[in-house]
C-alpha cells in the first residue's frame, strides 16, 4: 500500500487567541521553529503543512472539502470528506476537525507508520 498504512485519518483542529480565524490567513505547520520560513523549507525539513483544504508532506498529500472561517467562541466539531495520496496509494478518508477556545494548536491523529510512530502530529498556527 506504499509508504503509509492509513486505516483512518482524523484531524483535530484547535485554534485559540482570536474569536474567528481564517486558515488562509496564516501558515499552519508541524514545527513552530519553522514559522517565518517558506513552505518549501518546512517540507524539506520533513514537516507537515495544513491549509483550509490540504495537509501536505514531502511524500504525500491529503485533500478535504474546504473548512469555513472558524468561529472559536464555542466548541464545535466539523467533518470533511477527502483522500490521502502518495507515490503508491490513494485512500479515501474522513477528517474530523475540533475547535474550541480552551485548547491550543492543531492536532492530527492517524497512522503515519514511517514518519510518526505515535500517530500524532501537532500543528502550530504561525502569526
From TrEMBL:
Name by which UniProt lists this protein: Uncharacterized protein
Per the UniProt entry, what species is this protein from, by scientific name?
Litoreibacter halocynthiae
Amino acid at each position: 500500500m506504499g509508504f503509509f498504512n492509513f486505516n483512518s485519518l482524523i484531524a483535530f483542529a484547535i485554534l485559540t487567541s482570536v474569536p474567528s480565524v481564517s486558515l488562509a490567513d496564516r501558515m499552519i505547520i508541524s514545527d513552530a521553529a519553522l514559522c517565518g520560513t517558506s513552505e518549501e523549507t518546512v517540507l524539506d525539513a520533513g514537516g507537515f503543512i495544513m491549509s483550509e483544504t490540504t495537509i501536505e508532506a514531502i511524500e504525500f498529500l491529503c485533500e478535504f472539502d474546504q473548512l469555513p472561517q472558524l468561529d472559536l467562541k464555542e466548541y464545535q466539531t466539523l467533518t470533511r470528506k477527502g483522500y490521502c495520496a502518495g507515490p503508491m496509494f490513494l485512500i479515501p478518508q474522513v477528517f474530523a476537525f475540533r475547535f474550541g477556545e480552551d485548547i491550543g494548536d492543531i492536532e492530527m491523529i492517524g497512522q503515519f507508520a514511517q514518519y510518526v510512530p505515535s500517530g500524532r502530529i501537532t500543528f502550530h498556527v504561525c502569526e
